[in-house]
Amino acid sequence: MSDVEPEVADADAVERAESDADETASRAVENPILEVEDLEKRFGGIVAVDGASFAVEQGSITGLIGPNGAGKSTTFNCITGVHQPSGGRVVFDDEDITGDEPHQVANRGLVRTFQIARELPEMTVLENMMLAPKNQIGESLWRSVLPYFRDEVIEQEEELRERAWETLEFFEIDHLAEEYAENLSGGQRKLLELARALQTEPEMLMLDEPMAGVNPTLERKLLDHIHELREQGYTFLIVEHDMDVIMNNCERVIVMHQGAVLDRGTPAEIKANEQVIEAYLGGEV
Ligand SMILES: Nc1ncnc2c1ncn2[C@@H]1O[C@H](COP(=O)(O)OP(=O)(O)OP(=O)(O)O)[C@@H](O)[C@H]1O
């Protein structure tokens, strides 16, 4: 054994450590709006989410991907209060929201597109928009009998109507305002779903398969709107099976496999990970 070998080995170790540190730095989330720590969800004997940890950068479009059964929907459900997690923590805007009810999570500004009741088919697009917002005074009927609150309700309704029109114009579906929701195409319904979510004035939107059943023209439109909204400061976390949509539109991607996070990073980093490729091909990871 020469004296040189340990030096070379040390040099290798240092290089590896530096490259690990670089990788960690490049993959770190600097300004997280959402932090999921050691999330667990069990259904009887089934472990649907098994210690998943990740963070979502404020103002980013982040993709959450993984093969069927990886635990993506259950993770969404645990974050948004649909399911009570069996363990772990969810922090939004520096506040612990673990176990909050869905309406509490929405009121904090974290909204999932189909968390708000799906659009009501026998109501018009505009009526659907008017029903979406949170903290609507009009919902508390008793208040409307009091003169003071009646004025406030009228004022709030006018504001809501104005905002509804603005949002419908933004999504270019204002010409459909008087149309019954049941007459909309699949893609137009997705736009309405997103428009309704925006009526709640969220900070972050979680979209579950937004492109499913959407034709290519509307898909482009939907993506353009998502990018425009991101530029306005909204954050998006998107579960989507269409890899082209994820890889071409997300700055960051989180990969789940068997209930845990397998990798996270830029699309290029994710595409280069053989474990990810194997997970998708069904190989052992
Ligand atoms: N309510 C439930 N009761 C029992 N098991 C469940 C329940 N919900 C989900 N699971 C199981 O948990 C695991 C994760 O499911 P989940 O739907 O979260 O995966 P996913 O990544 O969203 O899959 P997909 O891409 O197919 O929608 C699966 O094995 C599923 O069968």
TrEMBL record:
The Swiss-Prot or TrEMBL record annotates one GO molecular function as: ATP hydrolysis activity
- BP term (GO), one: amino acid transport
Please list the residue ranges annotated as the ABC transporter domain. 34-283
**Which domain of life does the protein's organism represent?**
Archaea
Q: Can you list the GO cellular component terms from the UniProt entry? A: plasma membrane
The record ties this protein, via Pfam families, to:
ABC_tran, BCA_ABC_TP_C
Keywords noted in UniProt: Amino-acid transport, ATP-binding, Nucleotide-binding, Transport
Q: Where is this region: Disordered?
A: 1-28
Renumbered to this chain, the Acidic residues biased-composition regions fall at 1-12
Summarize the protein's role.
Probable component of a branched-chain amino-acid transport system.
Q: Which family does it belong to?
A: Belongs to the ABC transporter superfamily.
The name this protein goes by in its record: Probable branched-chain amino acid transport ATP-binding protein LivG
Species for this entry:
Natronococcus pandeyae
